[in-house]
Amino acid sequence: MRNIEFVISVVLTVVTAFLIAVFVPTPDHDPMKKVQLAVAYGMLVLLFLFGFLILAAIASGKIDISQLIAEDGGGASMSRFQLLIFTFVIALSFFLIVICECKFPDVPGNVLALLGISATTYGVSKGIQASGGLKGKNGAAGAAHDETPNG
Questions:
Q1: 77-114 tens-digit pLDDT
Q2: 35 closest CA partner among 24, 46, 47, 49
Q3: What's the rounded Cα separation, in Å, for the pair 71 and 136?
Q4: Which candidate in 9, 42, 88, 89 could, as Cys together with 17 as Cys, close a disulfide (CB 3.0–4.6 Å)?
């Protein structure tokens, strides 16, 4: 089997959900509450294991992230970098709020606007590159249009 890590993650998730469903007591002994807890913790474990597998693949070199914010013609894309940073900062902020307050906070409109503006700048920059034939810093696409036939 090629993706043994995936199979191990799914098996660990099922085992965790089963153990929670059988051994974790609920205050009111409600069977539906146990099922909800088992499914929720099973999904949490699965998400954690998938994230761990991705980080392990990045660390071992199976997933190459060297071109994560690079443009087609080379160089770094500021709009990609901005979207990446804003997404990580907002995700980390919400994660810390959830950890500290033990509840999911309401998402303010300003946060959604910030992510929307950042994603829009990325989309606009890709549109400008596609319509203008721009390929980056080396100008390879512009050089192809300057040739004149000798005839």
A1: 788 888 888 888 888 888 888 888 878 888 889 988 98
A2: 24
A3: 6
A4: 42
